[in-house]
Amino acid sequence: MAQNIEGKVVVVTGASSGLGEAAVRHLAADGAKIVIGARRLDRLEALASALSLGADAAVKTDVTQLTQVQALVDRAIKLHGRIDVIINNAGLMPHSPLEKLRVDDWNRMIDVNLKGTLYGIAAALPHMKAQKSGQIINVSSVAGHKVGSGNAVYSATKTAVRVISEGLRQEVKPYNIRTTVISPGAVRSELPESVTDPDTAQAIEEFYQKYAIPADSFARAVAFAMSQPEDVDINEILFRPTAQGY
User: Fold this and answer.
1) Which residue of 132, 140, 197, 223 lies most exposed, with the fewest beta carbons within 10 A?
2) Which residues on neighbouring strands pair with residue 179, listed in sequence order?
């Protein structure tokens, strides 16, 4: 079992596929107790069954709804009496040039990528403060460090995740809470499927086919941050495929 992971109670959003699913599989193998949330309950339940997480470990969760994120965290508290880690992973990436005015896509990114992360923090933080321990892992992106043509709003939401994570890091020092933001490059997931602009979708698909690396790369980054001794706080991890230039 990986050091400092076995027995930890972990909540993961966006756990039904991609990065979230990979993290769940990796942490379950390391002995964590995991409660998983996503909108697709059937896929969550199949994952929970495959990993023997328990019948109540899967919770249908739309991260744009604070009450649903709170219910996800409350399930972990009910089942295990505490929450040691929350991974705010749910996200989407409908890139398009600003001039196309895909306002609905802008709003979805703000609601899921930014508000969803804040809601995860809001749900977990009171419990971690009371425990005087915990770790909040937020998922940003290479796009949170670097803006590209066609991804301005996505980059804005992922930059905001980094800014919020740094503010949180400074504020939770009295409670012995650790904070980590992980910024992946092109990793195989369903993110490209969220692109609604046809021209952009083709370019993104070609980019991912050329460069994307397996989602387990993200899972290993999560495990690295979690497995450190309690007096070590890994605040930020940025990684890309070796071949990726952007």
Assistant:
1) 132
2) 136
Q: Look-up: residue for tokens 């649903």?
A: 68
Q: Please pick, among 119, 154, 175, 208, the residue that the annotation labels catalytic.
A: 154
Distance CA 178, CA 173 (A): 8
DSSP secondary structure letter of residue 194: G
Give the residue numbers spanning the domain of 230: 9-236
Q: What is the CATH number of the domain that holds 86?
A: 3.40.50.720
Instruction: Say which amino acid occupies 222.
Output: V
Residue 216 belongs to some domain of the structure: yes
Q: What is the DSSP string of 49-118?
A: HHTT--TTSEEE--TT-HHHHHHHHHHHHHHHS---EEEE---------GGG--HHHHHHHIIIIIIHHH
Residue 71 falls within a domain, yes or no?
yes
- Count Cβ neighbours within 10 Å for each residue of 234-245 and write b for 16 or more, e otherwise: bebbbbbbeeee
88 closest CA partner among 152, 190, 196, 162: 162
| Structure confidence by residue, pLDDT tens digits, 140-155 | 999 999 999 999 999 9
Q: Quickly state the pLDDT bin for 115 (edges 50, 70, 90).
A: very high
Give the residue from 215, 195, 200, 212 showing the smallest Cα distance to 246.
212
Yes or no: say if 61 and 38 are a contact pair by the CB < 8 Å rule.
yes
> Phi and psi dihedrals of 69, rounded to 5?
-70, -40
Domain count, the chain: 1
154: annotated active-site residue = yes
